[in-house]
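note to self: dont lose this again. the chain is below, predicted strucutre after it. 138 aa total, dont forget to put it in the shared folder this time
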Amino acid sequence: TVWPFLHLLSLILVLPSVLLASAFIILGRAIASRSLPGLLWQLLNDVLWMVPWGVLGAGTIILLIAVGGFVVRTRRMAGIAVAVLGIGSIVIALTLIISHSNFTWDQLPFFIPAAIGSGIGLWPAFVKKRDPSVPDGA
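---
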């Protein structure tokens, strides 16, 4: 079927927005220290935490979501997970952009792939399964 391909496509479309939202969160924590040494110290702490745990955990989650799209029993849950990642990252990024008063309409096209990926991810969750025992047209 075409569902696994669509699932991978939706995950690929959502990942740039997830990375942007993650970067905004990490940089926001570092900038909140309000000094250059504090910023560098917070970035160092975040990198030291992310190397063994954050990258491993994020990679595992993305891999599980990707594999979940290939298994019929977990396809709906994996699609919903892609949609949650996409919609969540859009909300985080737009909230941070708007709260800093530097929003322009030219920034919105960046979020189109994440919105499309979220829609594709939700599609299998809401499509009614066809009963193979019922003939077509019945």
